Amino acid sequence: MRERYEEELRKLNTLIISMGKMIEIAIESSMLALMARDRACAQEIAKNDQAINEAERDIESLCMKLLLQQQPMAGDLRLITSALKMVTDMERIGDHAVDVADLVSKVPDCKYGKMKEISEMSTQIIDMLHQAVQSYIEKDFNLAKNVIARDDVIDGLYHAIKKDLVQKIRETSEGETILDYLLIAKYIERIGDHAVHIAQWVIYALTGERE
Predict the structure, then answer these.
(1) What are phi and psi of 155, to 5 degrees?
(2) Sign of CA dihedral 52, 54, 59, 63
(3) Contact 111, 181 (CB under 8 A)
(4) For residue 148, what are the contacts with CB-CB under 8 A and spacing of at least 6?
(5) Cα separation of 18 and 125, whole Å?
């Protein structure tokens, strides 16, 4: 019975790694679509979101099976319940990648600046997300704490972008377009928040305490 249980836990880890890779690809693709003005790529991101939703349901189903059939003890119970919480954040990350892709068809060429900072934000959050998932798989407390600490970097980049774009709204008559760019930056900043939430659930899984 224990061997079967351990096998199911390994399967859970595999599913979480797979879903993590899906959302990393979704973020990367949404930024490539934005930078290259690639509407076809943007449309594919929306289609692929279904696979992310299905991955969430598969993980939830396995977690419920483990909870109901195996009645795990305290440590494993926290790992499984944390996985249930994590995949909700992971699914929302996929949704935000789609939100960015949806705006690609609306915004004109990148002429308002700060695209370097937007690209840097996306690079940072992809790495944060990867580390957050790895911290769960490897049960690495310090790696999870590192993800949480990096949130200040993302916030700093977002506020720099926001300040610049708000100033441009005052200077031009194309405020609606500039707001679309600000919205893109906000979606990316929210993805960073979800990566932090994932790391916080890892901390809970390992210690029983929330950050």
Answers:
(1) -60, -40
(2) positive
(3) no
(4) 196, 199, 200, 203, 211
(5) 17
pLDDT of 5 above 90: no
d(Cα 192, Cα 4) in Å, to the nearest integer?
36
| pLDDT value at 176 more than 90 | no
Dist. CA 138–CA 149, nearest whole Å: 19
Query: How far is residue 46 from each of residues 33, 70, 155, 204, measured CA to CA in Å?
Result: 12, 37, 26, 32
Task: Supply the pTM of this predicted model.
Answer: 0.92
Token digits of residue 161: 């972008």
Helix boundaries (H) for 71-114: 74-104
Mean pLDDT of 54-65: 96
